[in-house]
Every structure is written in structure tokens, then in C-alpha cells.
Amino acid sequence: MICAHEALDLQVFSCFAADLMSDVLAFSHANALLITGLTSVQAVHTADVADCKGILYVCSKRPSPEALALARAREIPLLSTKHTAYEACGILFQRGLAPATKAAEEATCATR
Q: What does the alpha-carbon distance between residue 50 and residue 21 come to, in Å, rounded to a whole number?
């Protein structure tokens, strides 16, 4: 955990991986964990606009100082893992996190 330790009890049920922030805005849904290798302030702005519950940086990456300051100000939890995005998604999927895509959400709604 990089910042927002007070959010340790936060529950997340879905995740979305992308380095193109336009994809996050176009295809993810709210309350997801954003998985990315993008460490700039744009990732934090995008997570805020997309109502993501937090950001998981892959490949042991750390946010820029500006991104860290913005995440603290917006109370967006930041985490980091040594795993690649592919590995992190697989691990989280195995542990029950659903894909946070609008297409997946629409398919789930259609089957109800």
C-alpha cells in the first residue's frame, strides 16, 4: 500500500487493466480497481473521473510525486505489485474479482 492506508477495509469486487486512460473512461465501470503501469498524474485523474476505488501499479512501479499528492488529496488508494498486469489480473480473477468492463456488465445483465 502506497497511500490511503485508512482504506484497508475497502471492498473491491471488480478490476480493469489499461495503460490507455481513454480505454478506462470508455470501457470500465465505477467502483473498480484500476490496474495500470501508467504512473503519471493522468492515471489518478482518470481513476477519479471513472470513480475507481483505487489504483494498482504493476511491475513494482511507483507513482510520480504529483500523482501521489493528487491521490492523497482525492483519497484514492494506491497500491503496487511486482507482478505484470497480466499476472495481476489472473491472480485477482482467481480470487474472485470480476472484470469491470461495460461489455461484461451488459452480458451479466442480459442473463438475468
A: 10
Query: Cα(34)–Cα(20) distance, rounded to whole angstroms?
Result: 11
pLDDT tens-digit series, residues 31-58:
999 999 999 999 999 999 999 999 999 9
Instruction: Kindly list the structural domains of the chain, giving each domain's residue range(s) and its CATH number in brackets, ordered by start.
Output: 13-111 (3.40.1390.20)
Report which secondary-structure segment, H or E, holds 14: strand 14-17
Helices (H), 1-112: 21-27, 41-49, 65-74, 85-94, 102-111
Residue carrying C-alpha cell 478506462: 24
What pTM was estimated for this model as a whole? 0.85
Q: Which amino acid is at 5?
A: H
Rounded to 5 degrees, what are φ and ψ at 69? -65, -45
Q: Which amino acid is at 79?
A: L
